[in-house]
From TrEMBL:
<feature type="binding site">
    <location>
        <position position="23"/>
    </location>
    <ligand>
        <name>Zn(2+)</name>
    </ligand>
</feature>
<dbReference type="InterPro" id="IPR025714">
    <property type="entry name" value="Methyltranfer_dom"/>
</dbReference>
<dbReference type="GO" id="GO:0032259">
    <property type="term" value="P:methylation"/>
</dbReference>
<feature type="domain" description="23S rRNA (guanine(745)-N(1))-methyltransferase N-terminal">
    <location>
        <begin position="18"/>
        <end position="54"/>
    </location>
</feature>
<dbReference type="InterPro" id="IPR029063">
    <property type="entry name" value="SAM-dependent_MTases_sf"/>
</dbReference>
<dbReference type="Pfam" id="PF13847">
    <property type="entry name" value="Methyltransf_31"/>
</dbReference>
<keyword id="KW-0808">Transferase</keyword>
<protein>
    <submittedName>
        <fullName>23S rRNA (Guanine(748)-N(1))-methyltransferase</fullName>
    </submittedName>
</protein>
<dbReference type="Pfam" id="PF21302">
    <property type="entry name" value="Zn_ribbon_RlmA"/>
</dbReference>
<dbReference type="GO" id="GO:0008168">
    <property type="term" value="F:methyltransferase activity"/>
</dbReference>
<feature type="binding site">
    <location>
        <begin position="108"/>
        <end position="109"/>
    </location>
    <ligand>
        <name>S-adenosyl-L-methionine</name>
    </ligand>
</feature>
<feature type="binding site">
    <location>
        <position position="37"/>
    </location>
    <ligand>
        <name>Zn(2+)</name>
    </ligand>
</feature>
<feature type="binding site">
    <location>
        <position position="197"/>
    </location>
    <ligand>
        <name>S-adenosyl-L-methionine</name>
    </ligand>
</feature>
<feature type="domain" description="Methyltransferase">
    <location>
        <begin position="98"/>
        <end position="215"/>
    </location>
</feature>
<dbReference type="GO" id="GO:0046872">
    <property type="term" value="F:metal ion binding"/>
</dbReference>
<feature type="binding site">
    <location>
        <position position="41"/>
    </location>
    <ligand>
        <name>Zn(2+)</name>
    </ligand>
</feature>
<dbReference type="InterPro" id="IPR048647">
    <property type="entry name" value="RlmA_N"/>
</dbReference>
Length: 284
């Protein structure tokens, strides 16, 4: 089955959760080719198996090079595997009767795919959305069992109270929109950096002379949602120069430093890189 046809079938099973981003009316899958709303607005299914819900293309710093590096780190090297396992267990326990998992800011989709690889329930379905078309094209090409949308987190193409779980993995959050689309007993799973996350890289950066603090992020969350639990996952991974280069390519920490600084980090690289993440569960 072609990717477009498979995506159409998956969207069709969950079209009751979708709404038009233009007029907010209900949407249906038409002829395995497009999502069409009651008022005639139409969004085509691309041959790769995704739908672009944006009205105009948005420029971002996330490109093919970054997403390729992320995929290698997450999929090939399994850099976050311990975190993925814990998240999949949370989802499995929360959705014993099945449901929808929305990855808000999914990028190239490797986090969501890795989490679903640890699930064995066909009744749980995943939908990823990102504003970067490059990322979603890659996600659709590689992970056709899940659905993928190009869209804006400030105006997601979902009905009110349609999502069972919202996943926000090292991504910005729009809490007002999350509240709108979350089911009454739904669960927000937010992953944020801990103070030692990628500390070996931070030590090389002149403007990072102290530990990262996530206090502002946590305080914002507590003002917007009811935090029900927080778990910190910390471990070290051995990396060679090739893996480290991919980490440097994918992390925003290095977006505004020079190539000479990149080469300096590689030349003096640590054999160990620290993963330090907080898994925060919350309800609205």
């Amino acid at each position: 089955m072609k990717k477009r046809e498979l995506a159409a079938l998956n969207f069709q099973e969950h079209e009751g959760a979708l709404q038009c981003t233009i007029c907010h009316s209900e949407m249906t899958v038409m002829d395995s080719k497009s999502l069409v709303c009651e008022k005639g607005h139409s969004f085509d299914l691309a041959k790769q198996g995704y739908v672009n819900m944006l009205q105009k293309q948005v420029s971002t710093m996330y490109d093919h090079t970054l997403f390729d590096a992320r995929k290698r780190i997450i999929y090939d090297y399994k850099f976050y595997d311990k975190v993925h396992q814990k998240i999949s267990k949370i989802i499995d326990e929360a959705l014993q009767e099945g449901g929808l998992v929305f990855d808000a800011g999914s990028g190239e989709g490797t986090h969501l795919n890795a989490i679903f690889n640890h699930l064995d329930k066909d009744s749980i379905h995943g939908i990823g959305l990102d504003i970067s078309k490059d990322g979603i094209v890659m996600a659709a090409k590689n992970y056709s069992d899940l659905n993928w949308l190009v869209g804006d987190l400030t105006q997601t193409p979902f009905k009110e109270h349609s999502q069972d779980i919202i996943l926000s993995f090292l991504s910005p959050a729009n809490y007002s929109e999350f509240k709108r689309i979350m089911k009454p007993n739904g669960l927000l799973i937010k992953i944020i950096p801990g103070s030692h996350y990628l500390k070996e890289i931070r030590e090389h950066l002149s403007d990072e002379d102290k530990e990262y603090e996530n206090t502002d992020t946590v305080n914002l969350m507590r003002n917007k949602v009811d935090v029900i639990s927080e778990e910190r996952v910390t471990y070290e991974r051995e990396v060679d120069e090739e893996v480290l280069r991919d980490i440097l390519t994918m992390t925003p920490l290095t977006w505004h430093i020079s190539e000479s600084q990149i080469e300096s980090i590689l030349k003096n690289h640590h054999e160990i890189i620290t993963v330090d993440l907080h898994i925060i569960l919350a309800k609205f």
